[in-house]
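TL;DR need structure tokens for one chain.
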Amino acid sequence: MIGILKRSATVSLFAVAAVLTAGCGDTTVSPMEPDASPASLAAAQSGAAMAGQSADRCERVLVEGSAPLGFVQLASGEAGLGALPTTVTIAGRTGTLRSVVTGMNPSGSLAQGALHLTLVHLFESGADSFRTSDVAVCAPAGPDAGTCRVNDVLSVVSGTGAFANAGGSLRNHGVINFNTGTLTISLRGRVCGDGV
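>> reply
TL;DR here they are.
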């Protein structure tokens, strides 16, 4: 009975991790990587199509740091737990990046495995913004039950201002730490737009 209670507590903690996840992969099936579902493959193919775009309308992205976790609401209506607005610089524009978990699917017969997630990220800098559609995996990060390793594939799907006709693909690898209520971020890739 104690073993079942411990397992339930761990499963519950990882369910909370999924809800609080905000950003962080590969499109192969692995307990630490997003799965190769039709949605994730379509997102990867969209990112691959953007990879062929002219370099004069694309910028490399590197964002590292941390973000606080909490309740986030986007103007488009999505709301839930994710990364609170965090100041970052992307394509020479300083603005805020936030995310919202839009869905989760735990793996394992007792939901004790990694959590497969969908998310939305939004970067805003005045009239310049872009939005992503993501697939991610949240998996145990060592012996500390208060942490979760997140791997996320972000496909840039729309934009405004300098990011009009947006495209590109980003990948984030991070760790959620429930002890501190933070997500570490290591976001890399490329974002494209007419004014970039």
